[in-house]
Amino acid sequence: MKWIPNFNSSNYLRVIFIIAIFILLFLSSIAYKHNQDLNESSKLVMHTYEINVQLERLISAIKDAETGQRGYIITRNSKFLSPYVYSRDKVNKSFITLKKLTSDNKIQKQNLEKLFSLIIQQFKTFENCLKYSDPKTYDKRKLDNYLFSGRILMDNIRFQVDQMNDIEKKFLENRQAKYDAEISLSPIFSISLFLTALSFILLAYRQISKDIERLKIFNKKLLISGGLMSESEKIGKFSTWQWDLNTDKIDYSDNQFRLLGYEPKSFVPKKDSFLDFVHPDDKETVSKSIQGIVNNKKLPFTYYKVIRPNNEIRYFKSAGKMLVDQHGSKILLGINFDITDEHLLNIELQERNNQLEKSNKELASFNHVASHDLQEPLRKIQTFISRVSDADKAVISDNAKEYISKIETSANRMRVLIDDLLLFSRTNTTKKEFIKSNLNELLENAKSELAVIIDEKKAHLKVGKLPKLRVIPYQIEQLFINLIGNSLKYSQPDLSPQINITCEKILSNEHPELIDPPFKKFYKITFTDNGLGFDPQFKENIFVLFQRLHSKTDYPGTGIGLAICKKIVENHKGYITADSKPGEGSVFTVFLPE
């Protein structure tokens, strides 16, 4: 597949971005100018504010001097002269500050000189008032004239201050009007430019979004074939390589170096260098495979051995394919698998299979011996004992009678043991043919098989509805026979056996006793009786071959019946458990997969 760069899309985006950038730069310059004007207006406001403050301080200082003077004249208490004395310094400081503030304003500078002249006259008036109020130089007429003159001067001072404040206020208003006139059209113009730039940006965004969607697809593929591939190679114990036939350059993935026993990028891959790693027995095969991929454009699976620097032998499987790009360049793509673990496992499995075949042959021989060689002499023993008539028994001694009875009992036990062993063996060796069967019918067959002992024990069986399942019919029937027979055998002497059989469908995750269940749903079939019960510490041991909880003299048996039950349930990929308490009966639970 060819990839053709979308030059039209790229040029379109470039033009849009250049126009948008110029518009944004122009808007930035306007915003900068407005910011400068705003700073200038702020400075003017602060300038006017400082002049107003200093003028207020002048008025305040003169008022303090006037108040102190009058207080002294009335009371002749020198304490009232303190404000009058310090007011001169305050007036001088404010005057110096105002002089600096009005240095660039000719009108305000002239007004300040007039104001300062009035203030000097006012302080001279204060001095004359103090002079003619003194008892030594007291002159009422002159004192009244200077007091009146001081009031006139104070009014003139206030007027001059108000005039200066009005000038500052008017100057500030003119500057603000000019500023407002300058920016009155700027918002509309700026918004228009901004909307234009935004339109261009949205057009670019739309185009970019389309390109991004395409890039996402490519990036996703690159992500899978890049970072994830590197991790996958380490986990899956495989590696990849590329061979450019035009330049004869070979690239290994990082894991290819690791599989050969080296750190990534530790050497420069070459065609002949890889053959150095191949086991001598396989070099010719690998060399032919490499040449075959050039000729056939494909490398079928090739199996060979590799020798690492530490002399460790690893087993590899390789495959490859030739690709031709749009420029006609030929590139070989290959993949190597380290199958050492699988190879060793196959060898181990083969050995186990051989052992299993040998074991099966031995078991078949045992079955033949058990079914023919062992049964023949046992059959003769039972036949000859049965021929000993009552008349023959009457003439022999009591010890001989006891010996004959013991021989007969032992022969019968041997017969039962051989039959049970054959039955246990057949659960492993016979063909497992699963047929959909009605378990109720199989249970009825089991009851018929045990009908005599059920009648003898006067047992009562309560059976719920059982499902239809794909099972090995004769094995499930044997399972029912063994479990019901077990309940009948270990019933309490003074009670008629009560056996309750129930069934329900369950989920495996609701029963923690089911370890690593292969299925989610099971049928739980429960066999509950009122028999002797047993110590719960033996609930696992009772399913072990030849394990007995009671003496063979008390309860006949071989210890194989429950082992057969466990084997049958395992053949159906199910589970069987037991629970009990002495004297309270037993509960056997069978879990069969749905």
Q: Give a quick account of the main beta sheet: strands, pairing sense, barrel closure.
A: 5 strands, antiparallel
Strand fraction: 5-15%
SSE topology string: HHHHHEEHHHEEEHHHHEHHEEHEEHEE
| Number of helical regions | 16
- Gap from first CA to last CA: 51 Å
Structural class call reads: alpha+beta
Cα gyration radius (Å): 58 Å
Shape: elongated
The overall average pLDDT, rounded, is: 77
Total E-strand runs: 12
Helical content (DSSP H or I, runs of 4+): 55-70%
Low-confidence parts: 1-7
**Strand neighbour order, sheet with most strands:** 2-1-5-4-3
Key traits:
single chain, 594 residues, five-stranded mixed β-sheet, alpha+beta, 62% helix
Notes on the protein architecture:
The structure is a single chain. The chain is of the alpha+beta class and 594 residues long. It has helices spanning 7-75, 81-101, 106-133, 140-183, 186-236, 254-259, 271-275, 283-296, 340-373, 375-386, 390-395, 398-429, 439-449, 451-457, 473-489, 561-571, and strands at residues 238-244, 249-252, 298-307, 313-324, 330-338, 435-438, 460-463, 468-471, 498-507, 521-529, 575-580, 586-593. The strands form three sheets. The protein has a five-stranded antiparallel sheet with strand order 2-1-5-4-3, with helices on both faces. Strands 7-9-10-12-11 form a five-stranded mixed sheet. The chain has a two-stranded antiparallel sheet with strand order 6-8. It is elongated. The two termini are 51 Å apart. The model is unreliable at 1-7 (pLDDT under 50).
